[in-house]
Amino acid sequence: MVTESARVDQWLWSVRLTKTRADAAAACRGGRVEINGKMAKPATKVQPEDRIDARLAGRERSVVVTRVIAKRVGAAIAAECFDDHSPPPPERLPEVAVFAERDRGAGRPTKRDRRKIDELRGR
Q1: Does residue 56 lie in a domain region?
Q2: What is the secondary structure of 36-102 as a DSSP string?
Q3: Domain assignment present for 101
Q4: Is pLDDT of 12 > 60?
Q5: Structurally, how many domains does the chain consist of?
Q6: Which tens digits make up the pLDDT trace of 43-85?
């Protein structure tokens, strides 16, 4: 559904920048979404050529609206609704295996410690 304006929380959800509309509304209420340099409330209207700067899911996003939609669409269509000017995502650090350590002389592991050790070993 193409419209000439839509709520910012609805648009963020529609183009798949947030997982839920509630997440988008919470980001707006938390001051993490700006439209053209001004803080946005969830009901703020979005129009084509608006610049949206947001901090979503631990990442800075900066997009320019090219098409306003009000309903969630497929990923391919959603990608056509904005121009992404976001910095590249930070590199992921390699996961380091956690090794269970106990202080020397701490005695036998408790039942809780045993469960954690088994969980680490994949049992």
Answers
A1: yes
A2: TTEE--TT-EE-TT-EEEEEETTEEEEEEESS-BSS---HHHHHTTEEE-PPPPPPPPPPPPP----
A3: no
A4: yes
A5: 1
A6: 999 999 999 999 998 899 999 999 999 899 999 999 999 999 9
First vs last C-alpha separation in the chain: 49
DSSP class of residue 108 equals S
Neighbours of 42 (CB within 10 A): 18
Q: Which domain holds residue 34?
A: 6-84
Q: What is the pTM of this model?
A: 0.72
Please give the mean pLDDT across all residues of the chain.
89
Q: Is residue 110 part of a domain?
A: no
Stretch among 15-24, 42-51, 109-118 having the lowest mean pLDDT: 109-118
Distance CA 114, CA 80 (A): 52
Q: Is 91 exposed, middle or buried (0-12, 13-18, 19+ CB in 10 A)?
A: exposed
Query: Would residue 71 count as lying in a domain?
Result: yes
Q: What is the CATH number for 70?
A: 3.10.290.10
